[in-house]
Design brief:
Blueprint lengths: L1 H13 L12 E10 L2 E13 L2 E14 L2 E14 L8 E17 L9 E16 L4 E13 L6 E12 L5
Protein name: Conjugative transposon protein TraO
Keywords: Signal
Organism: Chitinophaga tropicalis
């Protein structure tokens, strides 16, 4: 993971992107891969810009991991609103966000005496993203989120950190 981050940062230093911001009414797709306290998480999302510095992101995700002697799987949906509170540069943008998260989890292999944990969960999620624009149509982001859940088998909180690629569908200048 460290080598991947260094390679991406090196690519940013030698790549010059045109002035880029989120445009009002613009849309995009993103693919993310991250790490949680239990395992790995991947997701696919859709974003829609309200203004030049605020957008809504809806993301479907799957998390898979192994803890102690049991296997864990979580499938969910996040709906988060992000806001860019201050200007960094034309190349980088910091976005802070909050929203809701829904999910379905399954825990296997707890013990033969106890039933496996299966159920729905819901909660709130907050976090931030640092977004770097590679071109008018492509962006790269680093993200970190913290969720507070109701009715979760393995505690009430979890974190996720990761990387993502964002493709802007109608971002033309």
């Amino acid at each position: 993971m460290r080598k991947l981050i260094l390679a991406v940062c090196s690519m940013f230093c030698i790549t010059s992107a045109t002035a880029q911001v989120h445009q009002e009414g613009g849309t995009g797709l993103d693919i993310t891969l991250g790490k949680t306290g239990i395992g790995v998480m991947g997701g696919v999302g859709y974003m829609r810009n309200f203004t030049d510095n605020a957008y809504l992101q809806v993301r479907g995700l799957g998390e898979f991991g192994r803890m102690y002697n049991f296997k864990y799987a979580h499938f969910g949906l996040d709906a988060m609103t992000f806001y860019n509170p201050f200007f960094i540069s034309d190349f980088f943008q910091f976005n802070a966000g909050a929203g809701i998260t829904l999910g379905y989890e399954k825990v296997k292999g707890i013990s033969k005496e106890k039933s496996n944990g299966i159920g729905f969960m819901a909660g709130v999620k907050a976090g931030g993203q640092i977004e770097a624009f590679l071109s008018d149509q492509l962006g790269f982001c680093l993200y970190a989120n913290q969720a507070y859940m109701v009715k979760k088998s393995l505690g009430y909180t979890y974190y996720e950190v990761g990387v993502g690629i964002r493709i802007f569908l109608n971002n033309y200048y």
